[in-house]
Description:
Number of strands of chain B: 35
Mean pLDDT of chain A: 96
Distance between the termini of chain B: 51 Å
Mean pLDDT of chain B: 95
CATH architecture of the domain at 617-793 in chain B: Alpha-Beta Complex
Strand content of chain B: 15-25%
CATH topology of chain A: Rossmann fold
Strand order of the largest sheet of chain B: 12-14-11-15-13-16-17
CATH architecture of chain A: 3-Layer(aba) Sandwich
CATH superfamily of chain A: Class I glutamine amidotransferase (GATase) domain
Radius of gyration of chain A: 17 Å
Order of helices and strands of chain A: EHEHEHEHEEEEHEEEH
Number of helices of chain A: 6
Low-confidence stretches of chain A: none
Largest interface: A-B, 36 and 43 residues
Number of strands of chain A: 11
Helix content of chain A: 25-40%
Strand order of the largest sheet of chain A: 2-1-3-4-11-10-9-6-7
CATH superfamily of the domain at 617-793 in chain B: PurM-like C-terminal domain
Number of helices of chain B: 27
Strand content of chain A: 15-25%
CATH topology of the domain at 617-793 in chain B: Phosphoribosyl-aminoimidazole Synthetase, Chain A, domain 2
Number of domains of chain A: 1
Low-confidence stretches of chain B: none
Oligomer: heterodimer
Structural class of chain B: alpha+beta
CATH class of the domain at 617-793 in chain B: Alpha Beta
Amino acid sequence: MKKTDVQVCVVRAGGTNCDGETKRAFQDLGVNAEIVHINRLIKRRNLSEYDVLVFPGGFSFGDYVRAGAILAKAFSAKLGKELERFTDKGKPILGVCNGFQILVEAGLLPGFSGISEVPEAALATNFPIGFRCRWIHLRHENSGRCIFTNKIPEGETLRMPIAHGEGRFMFPKEKEKKFLDKLLENDQLVFRYCMETGKPAGESYPANPNGSFYDIAGICNPEGTVFGLMPHPERAYYGWQLPDWTRFERLPKFGDGRLIFESVIEYITTKL
Amino acid sequence: MIQSRYVKKKVPFELYEITLLDADDEQLLQISEEMGLALNLEEMKATRRYFAEKGRNPTDVELQTLGQTWSEHCFHKTFKGTILTHEGKKINSLIKTYIAKATLELNKPWCISVFEDNAGIISFEGDIAIAVKVETHNHPSAVEPFGGAATGTGGVIRDVLGVWADPIACTDVLGFGPLDYDFSKLPPGVKHPRYVYRGVVAGIGHYGNNMGIPTVNGAIFFDESYTGNVVVYCGCIGTLPIKKYIKNAKPGHCLVLAGGRTGRDGIHGVTFASLELTEKSEEVSRPAVQIANPIEEEKLKRAIITIRDFELASSITDLGGGGLSSAVGETAHRFQCGALVELEKVPLKYPHIPPWEIYISESQERMLITVPSENLEKVLQIFESEDVEATPIGRLTPEPLLKIKYHDIPVAELDMGFLFSPPKFRGTAEWKPPEHVEPKLGEPRNLKSVLLRILASPNVASKEAVIRTYDHEVKGNTVLKPLCGKNDGPSDAAVLKPLDSSWKGLVISSGMNPQYGKIDPYWMAASAIDEAIRNNVAVGGRRIALLDNFVWGSPEKPDRLGSLVRACEACYEFSKGFEAPFISGKDSLYNESPLGPVTPTLLITAVGIVPDIRKVVTMDLKTSGDLLYLVGRTYLELGGSEYFRLHGALGRSVPRVRLEDAKNAMKAITNAIDAGYVKACHDLSEGGLAVAAAEMAFSGDRGIDLWLSNVPRTDYVQTDAQILFSESNSRFLVEVPKTVQADFEEATKGVVVSLIGEVKKERSFSVYGLNGKKVMEAGLNELMKAWKSTFRM
Lengths: 272, 793
């Protein structure tokens, strides 16, 4: 598929608020991106016309009940069939921050055996408690399954910002070990919070900013086509977005987040 | 309660006639108080006169409408009124005489709309303009900190939406009582500063974060007087294509109310804000605080921006203080129309709200737009597509009359002319210089421990624990964040890159120092203006516009009004002098509590531009071997300083502003930054040179050698401590690479500037005193630790 034919759907509902910069990141790389309200998607039933589906950050429907829960249910209830067809075709779905919460609530992630009826994981209230906005380090742990990080070498350390109050990734306690093994076995683990040096955060604050189990910051489904992460790659797209860009001898052109957008576009243009 | 004066009308809903015509003066005041009108005797008498001419008594809806429209909060009576000073000078309107006068005389072509709309508007790049507004929300935050602060943020965002601008950033400056305030000293009705602090910070974060607007700039001050009078300033900046800035409402256009439903929350918010806080405020005024729903406003914003882009409406305003009463009245007044409102059409949260409450309720997340009837359907569709409720509730009419009906029964009819000409405020002002004395302090034996204590003092210490709870990078356009460098140093200003198609940046900074106002409000205002501008200049900002926000005590007391006049005089003088026009402002008066009046506090917000964000300079030191220059002269000005405060003193040598020197210093900094000679730049403020240098060092993780004997100073400055801790204005500490030393010196020729130190490899902070000997040696870690440990994350 040619770049100029690629259509990205950045879906929004009341309370979504990172749609603009997410759309900008895709457009900057030469593909078409459109912000679409869920009401319009439901009315037109045209999800299949898009090649990538993105759930951007924000507080969809005020994050009442649980973060992402309402939009996830709304999407599954009204567009469940379309969503299933979309994933079955191997079309990529990205969820950033609130989007990650939505994908987990909708049962798309971790999605050990397809879309699950009830969530298999959760993004719980941060520990220590509270909303936090800061830059963190991530270690890329994926060995090639995730189509969103193909351009990032395994073991690479990246920098991106987080901004959330509910990002503590967790599995049900009794299945923690089993699910983690599965995650690793299927090569579904994508990003872990780490120290500046790349060493694991060891589930300790502040390197692990929210108390996530196993320092998990982002995972994909077994097929590698659905990907969710708490950090914001769209806020680490340009060099001038870095928190310390004035310390570089020359202003870096881009930030690490760009690699994620490049990877998925490469996948679509070469594989689909 | 003088029951006989409230006569229930024979209608199937709650409507009262108030028998005003035969009421005597005492009864007039009693009515004003009982109905929560906050109107004074003169205003009540004017009301009685008006209805006597009409030959009938007013309804509750009419009196409440007058109470709202004529409130200090809505009409700014004090700033528009006549003031007699004790020297016999008569000031006709503080705004016209001082604040707006500078703007008028400067006559800058880039000022598009000033002191006119909900927000000030200035040009930015091509067709795109910037709208800015800063509000206060003190009274509600004192009663209910979370709700008060959240709705303060929501309200100022709507002010920006109210000029068709898309909000892109928020600012907030807060003032609290000491967090370790003795519980046993709290009078009834006053909440503990720690409780207020937590609630206010959470409220601001809740609204901004949920709406997806980055909070990019702010400050927190602590002052004993803020214990009873919390200070909450909320600011918002937006962008708009100037040709979409439409205001041509005409008779016949529909009044469309959009957004949240109307309830009993926020009744009498503005009249409450125009009274002093008392022990009973909690009980009486709790309903005056509104309930915040940022998601509703997020949806509303989307719809409004779409309607703007399609140019479907003829005017817009937000519903803030006074609710519908002020939004409808002001819209009609502005376009020289009247209005007809059908109150039963207003969507309610629950039934059985009497008409007067519907009309003045301050329920949040509501906007009023006027729409030509041919566009009505389209407009309603747009709101519906965003899941926002919108309802036509009336229309503008040709005759200058405000008519309000409820289920076809008239409940109010007021002449627009009368509604918008309340009796003029008349006040007397008297300012006497307070008799403070300069403390006689010996030279401290241990300068390091003084510096460590100042770094840890609440007004100087890192506010990271608060800043991190606000999303400051949503929208992905924050170029310079509130914290910068390797170790999260304090940025002087925030820089945004609002447009994808341009490198031009928007620079936002602030200046405030209530401590100086205790000595002289004139120099406090001058210092705040200087500080806001120099913060802006320090990162590369220029072409600066200012906003003023006064938080003062009751203007009915001559000393409070006297200090207000003095601050206004400085505003004119220095706005004009710096060629930085005021474009918008807001005052909050009557900040008095059982603990006394608020310390007069003026916040100056500065909005500048930087032609290319890639040239922006941060305050963290970059490279060892670079040189440190101090720009500006140090005077013996420790009055109101952190150094004196540490010694329990205030002093009287308040920092002044020498206009010509200040302007030259700033011009030189701008030139040097543009030429690329500056690696780091930091303004000197609270804590003076010592604090600025220490912050630059640990933020950049680079050591410093400082030579105090090289610091440019007046003869009165004779000790190391004076040089280190004087808070003289208009000074900058600048890092310059040796390779451009000559160029930098050439660029700053004619300005007071001196090479006072060097960046070094060792991670230590060394100060050499006037005698040439080392007088301080501190590790970067201990400095940073002192600065970071006061407010824990």
